[in-house]
Specification:
By secondary structure, this protein is α+β, with helices and mostly antiparallel strands. The protein contains 11 helices and 8 strands.
Length: 253
């Protein structure tokens, strides 16, 4: 019989405290034969399959995640992604990519494949957009922002290990946010003499104040100056900052 990892850990802790095999079996419901094997060193390897919410913050995949690709995928998920609960403890990560930018679908797929190698990534065409998705029992482990309801209606904050990844790869995180919920365009204005001119700028738009704050924090890490444009939009206007973002964000093509 295969026992949940949480029971295996609990039994090993009890044995380490000096409890007898019989007492551990009585308290946990694990057979005495299994406990005897574990005490003799035949401990089952930590399983990588589904586990309960109480174990997600210790999931071994967190330490194995491909960090640059993860930082990019995290930005995509916070901008235009969702995680759905499927049967048998499986979850579906979905990133909605605009059909006008097919190259971004390739980047999204590559990031998913790098973060969870061996998991198939599929594409489902929709009205004006394509759903790039992948199934796994571990998506809530890698994206603890998973929860009921829309992201802008609940608290969104990064786990400490996610903050460390963003601090190491802020360019990839900002790139993911811009590729999902941002744009680069020309702002056309007129001066007081009636002369018209245009200059490039980046904009990031999201209804969640928490996600906008994360975008601004990452810009601060990069030394990029940002401004609040309106209730939902952050803009980056300075020529030097725009030119710097151009070096790693790339066009939406």
């Amino acid at each position: 019989m295969t026992y949940p990892q949480v029971l295996v850990d609990k039994a090993l802790e009890m044995l380490a405290l000096g409890l007898s095999q019989a007492e551990v079996s009585r308290r946990t419901g694990i057979s005495r034969a299994a406990i005897r094997d574990w005490q003799h060193g035949n401990v089952p390897k930590r399983r990588r399959e589904a586990h309960g919410p109480y174990e997600r913050d210790t999931c071994p995949l967190i330490e194995e995640v491909a960090t640059p690709a993860y930082a990019y995928l995290l930005g995509l998920y916070l901008g235009d992604g969702t995680i759905s609960t499927m049967p048998k403890g499986v979850f579906r990560l979905r990133i909605f990519c605009c059909d006008a930018y097919p190259h971004l679908m390739d980047l999204c797929q590559a990031a998913m494949e790098a973060v969870l190698p061996g998991h198939k990534v599929g594409r489902v065409p929709g009205l004006g957009c394509t759903d790039v998705s992948s199934y796994s029992k571990h998506w809530p482990c890698l994206f603890p922002q998973f929860g009921p309801g829309m992201k802008h209606l609940r608290r969104i904050e990064l786990a400490p290990w996610q903050e460390e990844i963003v601090e190491e790869f802020p360019e990839e995180f900002v790139r993911g946010l811009i590729h999902s919920d941002g744009c680069r365009g020309l702002n056309r204005v007129s001066n007081r003499f009636g002369q018209r001119y245009a200059y490039p700028r980046y904009q990031f738009t999201n209804r969640s104040q928490d996600i906008k704050d994360l975008f601004c924090w990452a810009c601060d890490l990069l030394g990029v100056e940002w401004k609040v444009m309106n209730r939902y939009t952050i803009s980056i206007n300075k020529r030097a900052d725009v030119a710097f973002l151009d070096t790693f964000i790339g066009p939406k093509t």
